[in-house]
Amino acid sequence: MLLGNLYNITSQRNEENQFYAEISINASHEIFTGHFPGQPILPGVCMMQMVREMLEQQVHQKLQVSEAANMKFTAMLDPTVHASASMSISYTASANYWAVKASLTHNELTFFSFSGTIKSVSAEQ
Questions:
Q1: Residue at 2 is within a domain
Q2: Using an 8 Å Cβ cutoff, are 23 and 8 in contact?
Q3: Do 54 and 87 form a contact (C-beta atoms < 8 A)?
Q4: What is the distance between the alpha carbons of residues 92 and 44, in angstroms, rounded to a whole number?
Q5: pLDDT in tens, 11-22
Q6: Mean pLDDT across the chain
Q7: Where residue 42 sits, what CATH number does that domain have?
Q8: How many structural domains is the chain composed of?
Q9: Burial classification of residue 103, based on how many CB atoms lie within 10 Å of its CB (0-12 exposed, 13-18 middle, 19 or more buried)
Q10: Residues 84-106: pLDDT tens digits?
Q11: What is the 3-state secondary structure (H, E, C) of the chain?
């Protein structure tokens, strides 16, 4: 889990099938020593993990990404430059699956966008 270690939610707002969170990024997290030395960049896999973790909190289930229909990394998030960011997640439930759209931004700058399917881990059993 990256929540509470790599990032923290500083504020959040819930609406029907939507979640907005302001997050702070821990620039001294050990992941940045290897990604990359002298120029820290938040790995894309961590951005996707953040979406999964935040959605798990909303639906109170263990989840996994089932399909990434569209995933774009459009800017590098350097935590020494952007110590905070905004996560927006909208989701529509269908049985044990959620159609999800998410983005990670700072003001007008978009770092990451995703649309795809996330499913309940219990749906496989």
A1: no
A2: yes
A3: yes
A4: 23
A5: 999 999 999 999
A6: 94
A7: 3.10.129.10
A8: 1
A9: buried
A10: 999 999 999 988 899 999 999 99
A11: CCECCCEEEEEEEEECCEEEEEEEECCCCCHHHHCCCCCCCCCHHHHHHHHHHHHHHHHCCCEEEEEEEEEEECCCCCCCCCCEEEEEEEEEEECCEEEEEEEEEECCEEEEEEEEEEEEHHHHC
Q: What angle do CA 68, 7, 105 make, to 5 degrees?
A: 55
Per the structure, the complete domain to which residue 103 belongs is given by 7-124
Tokens of 45: 């896999």
Is residue 19 within 8 A of residue 54, CB to CB? The reply is yes
The structure tokens listed for 77 are 């998030």
What number is the average pLDDT over the span 46-56? 96
The pLDDT of residue 95 is 85
Residue 116 · residue 102 · CB < 8 Å:
no
Structure tokens of 105? 């931004």
Facing residues of 70 across strands?
115
Q: How many CB atoms lie within 10 A of CB 84?
A: 13
How far, in Å, are 33, 39, 122 from residue 51 at the CA level?
A: 23, 24, 19
